[in-house]
User: Fold these one by one.
Assistant:
Number 1:
Amino acid sequence: MKKLLAIIRLRCPRCATGHIFASLFRMNRQCPVCGLEFEREQGYFVGAMYFGYALSLAAVLPVIVAMLLLGFSAASIYIVSCLVLLACAPFLFRYSRVLWIYLDQVIDPR
Ligand SMILES: [Zn+2]
């Protein structure tokens, strides 16, 4: 439960206190509380794309299904889906990276 709360609050996986993000799109290099290095190596966050894809799908799929059931055209579904993804971009960016960091800490804790 503590880990889930830390993920939701975008906190460090080791201490659950330090902020992973310094601003909306800028990450801290390391945890300001315990010093955990968030980006272990160059290209570390490429794996976060898997979470980004899954979260994007979770965000846009209900919209697509609802619009299909309501009989909207493919073009309007496409435009609305793009707008939803654009609006969710900060959320998707941040949570995909945080989930990647947490998964990496489970597999290879440091
Ligand atoms: Zn920490």
Number 2:
Amino acid sequence: MSIERRVQLVENLFYKLEQENAQFEKSSGLSCVSGCGKCCKSPDIEASPLEFLPWAFHLFLNGKAEKMLRTLNKTHSPTCLIYKPLSVIDNKGRCSDYKYRGLICRLFGFAANTDKYGNLRLATCKIIKEGQANKYKSTNEAITKGLYVPVFTEYYMQLNQIDFNLGTIILPINKALKMALEEVLHYYAYRPFPDLEKKVF
Ligand code: SF4
């Protein structure tokens, strides 16, 4: 399948999740603290290259893919390279490419995992769990009674159906970014620059 088609399918999946997230945020009342970005600073974020294919393709279209790949090759930091600190004083920061963030970034905080008893549990950060404790508790109760919540495994299964190889490899986030860029750059090494006016297959 072409890069353009895979990008389109991943973006369609993100669009579906966006709709579900908006509905879930509305019914739960939960929300991120403005300008927080703390979860992005975790050194343990893992992702698949496929969820960053739209990001890599976007950089490629803008002539920035090679430069970013060189930066990724040089970095030894485990923190996501897309994260940009805003202030050292209050420790705040943000995603510098929010529109093209990965699936994990879109799910974390507003999606559920299945616990060892087979129940869905909201996977979110300590800041939300403690700062919005009542809403967090009532949302988990509502989920057990049937409130719809996006589920990590279901979304990753849908992602894998687009490209099993790139969707099932789970890597530290900077390695996933690097592999997504390499996929796009290798693909176009011997192909013409994509014509976005043409129908995508
Ligand atoms: S891609 Fe953006 S939202 Fe995802 S971890 Fe990196 S900085 Fe955070």
